[in-house]
Specification:
heterodimer; A: Dihydrodipicolinate Reductase, domain 2; four-stranded mixed sheet; globular; B: alpha/beta; fumarase; binds iron/sulfur cluster
């Protein structure tokens, strides 16, 4: 297999320094909705100026370049071992090039190896598919917003929330309220309903790969996504928790099978610096979207 | 709400004149410190009867820089320029509440006048701001390239090898670093206020 590491470095560079167009457009729209001269509007001005500068200088949008989460879709016959090796090599190089901050820390010793590598770092998911080409989705998931994610085991008596979509709505609104501005609002909220504790968290984060204008195929969830985004924005938390009209940019929901005994609602929080990019490698040609 | 240019070191009188919502720009020397740095300070400087001799020099240096000075909760992305000098590439604030258990004592011991971070801090830090004359300044989280452009020079770094790049004490000179006062020395916290207001709005949705 040929060495794709240079393409993976470029994927990391783009993810870290070049905010996707749909996110940037949503931030512009949010700015326009805030009161003239408010702290919220000033925050959006800084955010948008930062997005522009980072792209122009090819420097990380945020210094917390997060956990690199790679979803690798490969045609039959490819070696996942080789792909993993090349991606790890690219992560190390991209760290040397300051596209990534050395972020992986040994939990027990507190030591930082300085290269973003560890037994379980970065995070990988491999999936063989029927397409004749390779696709690698990368998201950089920041720590501040990760810390404000929340999981609810339903029913939840504090929220008077049961095992239905009304219960999901209550849980998600509570999660947004608890987060306040601490996860660098405004956010995209990824929600998973069902699963076990682990699979539910993973599914909630997979929602961040969806484009913002993506409409949920399930009309019940599509409606709830819209409603939650609208209602969360009445909370008044605003960008950075300065107060304002935009607390979330979008809410994305999916469900997964559960056991009769369990009903989890998991809300993952993605900060405004919603960094994701995809590499497509087809017939020897690499493109980044 | 007003705007101020603040020269570091900052006097208590100046700090007491600031109120929640004021916008400031900072000029002078700032030192970064985040999770591991706070734990280090607690374990090394505040716990035992005496500071271990090997750590005395760094204590003295921090004491000099932070008397009337400014701490920044930040773990930067750094690079070396062609002449081997460090520079900040990307350097926004990190979440401050994790330092809540430590900050009262740090403000008290060092005489800090301002702590920059994001997300705000809790009642103990608010009390320290009142008791000793300090403010909490909120920078724009994630605006890291923009903020790095106000960091004009890296003057030094402590504990880089032990704590790692993000966790080290970086001593930097800033010019025009922008932030908003969200906790003042009069016991007012924008974060507390918004938490309560948004809780009332949440109740209306439930
Ligand atoms: S939450 Fe996001 S924008 Fe904020 S500091 Fe972390 S990675 Fe950066």
């Amino acid at each position: 297999m040929e060495n794709l590491a240079p393409h993976f470095i470029e994927l990391i560079r783009r993810a870290s320094t070049d905010l996707p167009a749909d996110i940037e457009a949503a931030l512009h729209q949010a700015r326009a909705g805030e009161d003239e001269g408010s702290a919220a509007q000033t925050a959006f001005d800084s955010i948008l100026e930062n997005v522009r500068l980072s792209r122009a200088h090819s420097t990380p949008i945020c210094q917390d370049t997060g956990t690199p989460i790679f979803y690798v879709y490969y045609p039959t016959g490819w070696s996942t071992l080789a792909l993993k090796k090349q991606i790890r090599e690219a992560v190390e190089k991209a760290t040397q090039m300051s596209y990534l901050r050395p972020n992986s820390v040994d939990t027990l010793t507190g030591k930082n190896p300085g290269n973003n590598l560890g037994d379980d770092f970065p995070y990988f998911h491999f999936e063989e598919w029927e397409e004749p080409y390779l696709k690698v989705d990368l998201m950089l998931k920041g720590g501040g917003c990760e810390n404000v994610g929340a999981q609810y085991s339903m029913p939840d008596s504090r929220l008077e929330a049961g095992r239905d979509l009304e219960g999901v709505r209550r849980a998600v609104l509570d999660a947004v309220h608890q987060a306040q501005g601490m996860g660098c609002a405004p956010a995209v909220i990824g929600v998973a309903v069902g699963g076990d504790r682990g699979s539910s968290y993973i599914k909630s984060k997979e929602q961040f790969y969806r484009p913002l204008d993506d409409v949920n195929a399930d009309p019940r969830l599509a409606e709830l996504e819209q409603r939650l985004a609208r209602e969360a924005n009445t909370l008044g938390i605003g960008p950075m928790g300065f107060g304002g009209k935009t607390t979330v940019l979008s809410v994305k929901i999916d469900s997964l099978e559960r056991l009769p005994a369990s009903y989890f609602v998991t809300a993952s929080y993605m900060c405004w610096a919603d960094r994701r990019r995809s590499l497509i490698y087809r017939d020897g040609v690499a493109t980044i979207e | 709400m007003a705007s101020y240019d603040l020269q570091i070191p900052i006097s208590e009188e100046t700090i007491r004149s600031l109120h929640v919502g004021d916008q400031v720009r900072l000029y002078g020397t700032v030192v970064t410190a985040r999770d591991a740095a706070h734990k280090y300070m607690k374990d090394t400087f505040f716990k035992g009867a005496a500071i271990p001799p090997a750590e005395q020099a760094i204590y003295d240096e921090l004491a000099r820089l932070w008397k009337g000075g400014v701490m920044y909760h930040c773990g930067p992305v750094v690079a070396k320029d062609d002449e081997g000098r460090w520079k900040f590439v990307s350097a926004g604030p990190t979440t401050s509440t994790r330092e809540e258990p430590y900050e009262y004592e740090v403000i008290q011991r060092f005489g800090l006048r301002a702590v920059i971070g994001k997300g705000g801090m809790g009642p103990k830090t608010l009390a320290a701001c009142q008791d000793y004359g300090a403010v909490y300044l909120h920078a724009v989280g994630g605006a890291a390239t923009l903020i790095a452009s106000y960091v004009k020079e890296v003057l030094g770094v402590y504990k880089k090898d032990e704590l790692g790049v993000p966790e080290a004490f970086w001593v930097v000179r800033v010019e025009g670093f922008p932030a908003v006062v969200t906790m003042d020395s009069h016991g007012v916290s924008l974060h507390e206020k918004l938490y309560e207001e948004s809780r009332a709005r949440l109740a209306a949705l439930m």
